[in-house]
Specification:
- It is a single chain.
- By secondary structure, the chain is of the alpha+beta class.
- It has two domains: 163 residues, Ribosomal Protein S5, domain 2; 143 residues, Alpha-Beta Plaits (2-Layer Sandwich).
- Helix content is 36%, strand content 26%.
- The chain contains eight helices and 16 strands.
- Strands 2, 5, 10, 11, 12, 13, 14 and 15 form an eight-stranded antiparallel β-sheet that branches. The protein has a six-stranded mixed β-sheet with strand order 8-7-9-6-1-16.
- α2 crosses α3, α5 packs antiparallel against α6 and α7 packs across α8.
- The longest helix is centred in the middle third of the chain and has 21 residues.
- It starts with a strand and ends with a strand.
- 47% of the residues are buried.
C-alpha cells in the first residue's frame, strides 16, 4: 500500500538578502540571510512513491534536474532506490519574485522524508532542502530564521509568536513569471558585476544591526537595514553585464509611495527580492491605512497581507 503525504509550507522572505553562492555544487550561500516566514501564503505539495521521478507545479510538468541532488540525498538517507511523484500548488504566483522556491523545496523535502519514514530533525531537513534552494533551508521553520554565509542549514531565532503585531503587505505588481531565474541571475552577478565583491562584504556588515533591531522589535531600525540590503543587492544586479533589472514601473511607484507613507508617520518599510513584487513591513495597526494608500495609487494592484508564519504542516493518508 502506498502512502501520500500532503505538506503545506510558507515562503521565507529575506530581510537581509541572500544573493550569491559560495559553492554552486553544494548550493551554499555566499551571504548570510535573516528572514521571516510569511503566514497567509503557502505551497501545498503531495508526494507518493512512484516508478520514476516526476514533479508538477500548478498542473505543469517541471524538469527534475534541479531536484536531483535532493532526491539523491533522500535515497541515500533511506538506503532505498525509490522514486517520487510530486504535485505542488501555490496560492500565489510562482517564479514571480515571491520566494516560491523556498516554500516549494521545503514542502517537497518534508513530504518526501515523511513518505520514506525518515526520522529527521529540523536541522537535517533544512540541510536537505538547501540542496534544492538555499532559501528553502529557512522555510523549514516558522518565525524568524538565520542562514549563515556558507551555512548548510538554517536555524530559528524566534518563533512566530515573538512579534505578533508585525505584518507584511505584499504588493503584487505582476502575476507573470520573471524572465530570468534567481539562480541564473546570481551566477551572472557573481561573474560579471564589478559590485559583487562589495556586495558580499556589505551583506555581512548588515547582519549585526539587523539582528539587534529584531531583538528589540524595532521596526524602523529593521526596516532601514532591509531597505539597504535590497537596494544594494539590486545595485549589484544592475551592474552586471548585461544589466539585470526586475523592476517594473509599478514597482518604482510603490517604492516611492512607501517613502511618502513614512514621511506621513507610517511604518512602511519596503523590500524586494529578484522580481517586481514589493513587500512592505509594517505594524498590524497600520495595515488599513497603508493598503488604502497603495490601492489609491493603483486600483488594479492586488494586495496580500501576511503575518509571521508557522513552519511546515503535514498529513498522511493510505492510497
Amino acid at each position: 500500500m502506498n502512502t501520500e503525504v500532503l505538506c503545506r509550507t510558507s515562503p521565507s522572505l529575506a530581510l537581509v538578502k541572500y544573493w550569491g553562492k559560495k559553492s554552486s555544487r553544494k548550493n551554499l550561500p555566499a551571504t548570510p540571510s535573516l528572514a521571516v516566514t510569511l503566514g497567509g501564503v503557502q505551497t501545498e505539495t503531495r508526494v507518493t512513491i512512484a516508478e520514476k521521478d516526476s514533479i508538477q507545479l500548478d498542473g505543469e510538468a517541471v524538469a527534475i534536474d534541479r531536484f536531483r541532488p535532493l532526491f539523491t540525498a533522500l535515497r541515500k538517507a533511506a538506503g532505498r532506490k525509490v522514486h517520487f511523484r510530486a504535485e505542488s500548488v501555490n496560492d500565489f504566483p510562482s517564479s514571480a519574485g515571491l520566494a516560491s522556491s523556498s516554500s516549494g523545496l521545503a514542502a517537497l523535502t518534508v513530504a518526501c522524508a515523511r513518505v520514506l519514514e525518515l526520522d529527521l530533525g529540523p536541522e537535517d531537513l533544512s540541510s536537505l532542502a538547501r540542496l534544492g534552494s538555499a532559501s528553502a533551508a529557512r522555510s523549514l521553520f516558522g518565525g524568524f530564521t538565520l542562514l549563515p554565509a556558507g551555512g548548510t542549514a538554517a536555524r530559528q531565532l524566534y518563533g512566530p509568536e515573538y512579534w505578533p503585531q508585525l505584518r507584511i503587505v505584499i504588493a503584487l505588481v505582476s502575476h507573470k513569471a520573471k524572465p530570468i531565474s534567481s539562480r541564473t541571475a546570481m551566477e551572472a552577478t557573481r561573474d560579471t558585476s564589478p559590485y559583487y565583491r562589495a556586495w558580499l562584504r556589505n551583506a555581512a556588515e548588515l547582519l549585526d544591526p539587523a539582528l539587534e533591531a529584531l531583538d528589540k522589535r524595532d521596526i524602523e531600525a529593521l526596516g532601514t537595514v532591509a531597505r539597504l540590503s535590497y537596494s544594494r543587492m539590486h545595485a549589484a544586479l544592475l551592474a552586471a553585464s548585461p544589466p539585470l533589472l526586475y523592476w517594473l514601473p509599478a514597482t518604482v511607484a510603490v517604492i516611492r509611495e512607501c517613502r511618502a507613507l513614512r514621511e506621513d508617520g507610517l511604518s512602511a518599510w519596503e523590500t524586494l527580492d529578484a522580481g517586481p513584487q514589493v513587500k512592505v513591513l509594517c505594524l498590524e495597526s497600520e495595515v488599513e491605512a497603508i493598503s488604502e494608500r497603495l490601492q489609491r495609487l493603483d486600483p488594479a494592484l492586488k494586495l496580500i497581507v501576511a503575518s509571521v508564519g508557522e513552519g511546515p504542516v503535514c498529513e498522511s493518508r493510505e492510497l
